[in-house]
Amino acid sequence: MLWIKAFHIIFVVTWFAGLFYLPRLFVYHAQQPSADTVALFKVMERRLMMMTHIGGGLAAFFGLWMLSLGWEAYLSQGWMHLKLALVAMLAGYHFWCRQLTVAFAEDRNRHSEKWYRLFNEIPSVILIAVVILVVVKPF
User: Fold this and answer.
1) Residues 26, 100: contact at Cβ < 8 Å?
2) Is 56 within 8 Å of 91 (Cβ atoms)?
3) pLDDT-derived band at 1, boundaries 50, 70, 90
4) How far lies 59's CA from each of 52, 53, 96, 118, 137, in Å?
């Protein structure tokens, strides 16, 4: 079980690397840089999105594996219900990032640099909540 937990944590970190950095690229991309820089951002966003998909998918795989090994004990605890709801929100955020990556690739961005700066904070808030839930287990 500890190996599964270790790999879950490794891939959660990988997933969050993408969820933190991809919206930061969106901030810079929305500033309407030169054509050469826009082309570079498109490549960086596409590659980072792939890494984020891999990290998120493997984090989910190892997380579900852990959950399956002790599902009765975990699912009887309120903190786990809230954690899973927050993880579902992160998955939604992840796929929203995917839509934004496609929009940038097709030159269809409709948001401002300021909007992306606020959007960039969402995973940070969720991460803080999830870590507190997992470590403190308040209920």
Assistant:
1) yes
2) yes
3) confident
4) 10, 10, 18, 25, 20
